[in-house]
Design brief:
83 residues; alpha+beta; 2 helices; globular
Amino acid sequence: MRTATMDLASNHLTENQLKTVRKYKNRLTKKLLTFQIAWVKPVKENMIELHLETDNRTYRKGLLASQLATEVEDETDVIIILR
């Protein structure tokens, strides 16, 4: 599922998980324009799995994406697993 359309309800995400994905997507678009969220899948009540797509992934950009995920995790208490 592409999150550009923000049709996240079809993945059976809870409200807290939706809030987490939206926060992460907003921060990701501000910092890393080349990264896109390809799909989101709920794992547990407080855990989601996210797949990022980019054409030329570098170590520093991947590190920044994981740092952003950690910041959002601290705020929302939902764990983000990046794939």
